[in-house]
Amino acid sequence: MIQHPLLLRQLRRNFGEGPASTPEFENFIRQVEGAYYQCDHDRRLIEHVLEVSSKELTQANAQLLSQNLRNEDLLTRLRQTLNLFEDKDALFAEKDLIRVADEIERLVAGRQAVEKALRAAKEASDAANQAKSDFLANMSHEIRTPLNAIIGMAELLEYDSMRPDVKQCLRTIHTSGDVLLSLINDILDFSKIEAGQIEIEHVPMDLRMVVEESMSIVSSMASEKALGLKLVKDPRLPEAILGDPLRLRQVLLNLLMNAVKFTERGSITLTTIFKTDSEGKNFVDFAVRDTGIGIAPDQQERLFKIFTQADISTTRRYGGTGLGLAISRKLVHLMGGDITIESVLGEGATFRFSIPVILSPKPVVTQDLGATPPLENYALGKRCPLKILLAEDNKVNQQVVELMLNRLGYDTVIVCNGQEVLDRLDQESFDLVLMDVQMPVMSGLEATGIIKARLGQKPQIIALTANATREDRMICLEAGMDDYLAKPIRRDRLAAVIEETYSRKNGKALADCAIRPGF
User: Fold this and answer.
1) pLDDT tens per residue across span 15-66
2) Is the dihedral of CA 149, 386, 368, 509 positive or negative?
3) Which of 112, 435, 467, 476 is the most buried (most CB within 10 A)?
4) CA of 193: how far to CAs of 112, 125, 196, 308, 486, in Å?
5) Peptide bond between residue 488 and the one before it cis (omega within 30 degrees of 0)
6) Which residues pair with 339 in a beta bridge?
């Protein structure tokens, strides 16, 4: 009997009383429900950690304030003492000089106490932030591992299932897993921003493509609710700029998805305007306007606080964590702008932000391989033959990745840790190693360093990890890995990485290895 309210609501929304199912399928649903409950538990733990860390920082600030007040008192007494020296008529007895010396000694001791308190407060604050970041990173890793199985298996079953009702149920599970994954990413992002561990990139990017891709992603959501979706694009909008396409897309998607979520009828419009100020600096203004429920003026500022929505009834009706807008505002701040809102309750809302942009001196080169039909219609293994070694200690993840590779046309050799990778490479050669980062006996990072020292560029090594931040990716690349796949692993992304590996191995352009009909 399903009891988790989110899963139950999603199944009832799509199937009413539910599709006819087998005992095996019911067991699978129970496993998914267990993962939902575990994620609920983990979220409560994360919120508690955020609250505890805030208390520690408040205590540290109070301690600093107290020390500053004591320091001001000491400085006042020092001024009074020095004033004695400015009085030329003052006669100083030995006791006066002793009093002055004692006062200076107390001032020095007070200064040292303040410095010690400042160091202690900073260390306490740094330790609290690091503990919070470490905890959230570990929680992300632990949650992503079962989510990899849920999303991966649901995706594989969805491709293979012939019954429409079961296929729709699997799609619901897949979508729900994506929602949980989005929650994990939001919490991890917010923690990284708060700790100052996220930096905005300035790389050549296609601004128009980022805008159009964002609209494309939300188009299906809008269609399901029969909402209009319109893009008003300034014809002066530059194509190539220096910026962070990932973070800009993240902000746009959050605003657009919120607009779709809180709009029952009408339309959503994204407007972009390019402008140059009197000093010659370039800016791009973005505005996302909807015809949804709107927000009362006294509730608008609360939207940008963590775990907060306009009111509790909004959370009950529409769901969500209240993290998205807080993260978006902080990301826009890092880009040099700010987000504002204009809204009338019951008449919709408009979210605006403006960011400075630098025109890229070089055009952005994009590759269009054309529309690619579903992967189940292709035998990638025939077009891009590779000998693949999978290093993964989790049995369920082994099964998920092996099934994905089988569907793509590859047989796979599986080992459980870095030492077994080295032993296997001593026995035979491989073109590609899919390497989990955290494994017992020897980690993937350590094994990669040894392999690169022994064998140079062969084989290609792709990281498989539940640590999903940009910093984690850089650690993998700096260790000598050639690419990076974050869990949950998507079959289309896995296929793309295999294509790129084959292209590098054979020195061919990617289009030469593009997947083509194989059945």
Assistant:
1) 666 555 666 666 666 666 666 666 666 666 556 555 555 556 566 566 666 6
2) positive
3) 435
4) 33, 15, 5, 17, 20
5) yes
6) 353
